[in-house]
Design goal:
Blueprint (H helix, E strand, L loop, with lengths): L11 E2 L3 E5 L5 H7 L16 H13 L6 E10 L4 E11 L5 E8 L8 H15 L5 E5 L4 H9 L3 E7 L2 E6 L5
Parallel strand pairs: 5-6
Antiparallel strand pairs: 1-2, 2-3, 3-4, 4-5, 6-8, 7-8
Helix pairs in contact: 1-2, 3-4
Length: 175
């Protein structure tokens, strides 16, 4: 895996979506998008309001304090509705166990429309074009929607567990 820490994050375009690099200014709109407590059923926690989400986004945009870890975060913009509907992220780790961890979340009103799969596929393809693999995701047992997304982008469940979640892993090729 070759990665320059200064390699910039860039927008990712898919058929219906634009994955836009996360900005602190997205916090207010995203607090509304992510406000359903049901989104935290598998991950824990509770929805953040605009101010705490802004603080979180400030930390994410500043980047990882660990030089072996790079954080890339996007908001998912659904072009036909002209609004942001979720987030996608990639955490690239270099060193002894180089890999890229991916995650996604789509607001409740937009679920069931293939948005998470399209965003995750766009993200994984973008990573593959940069030679960043293997790709991993951690998914709670019973979270069937996320398992379907992971499978659709070429990941498969492994025997590894972390904090009760199943590690899904794959080496998706650039399409």
């Amino acid at each position: 895996m070759t990665l320059s820490r200064i390699e910039p994050i860039e927008p990712i375009e898919t058929g219906r979506l634009s994955l836009l690099p996360l900005a602190v200014e997205h916090a207010e709109e995203m607090a509304e998008v992510l406000s359903d407590p049901a989104l935290h059923h598998f991950t824990g926690g509770e929805p953040l309001g605009p101010r705490p989400l802004r603080t979180r986004y400030e930390r994410l945009v500043a980047g990882s304090p660990d030089p072996a870890v790079t954080w890339w975060n996007w908001v998912i913009h659904l072009r036909c509705e002209g609004r942001r509907v979720g987030t996608a992220q990639a955490t690239v780790t270099t060193g002894e166990d180089p890999h890229t961890e991916v995650a996604w979340v789509v607001g409740t009103p937009w679920q069931g429309r293939g948005i998470a799969t399209e965003a995750a596929r766009g993200l994984v393809d973008w990573l593959a074009c940069r030679g960043l693999g293997p790709v991993r995701a951690h998914i709670a047992p019973g979270h069937h929607a996320s398992a379907r997304v992971a499978s659709a982008v070429g990941l498969a469940p492994t025997r590894h567990r972390q904090d009760g979640e199943v590690r899904w892993e794959g080496r998706p090729d650039a399409r």
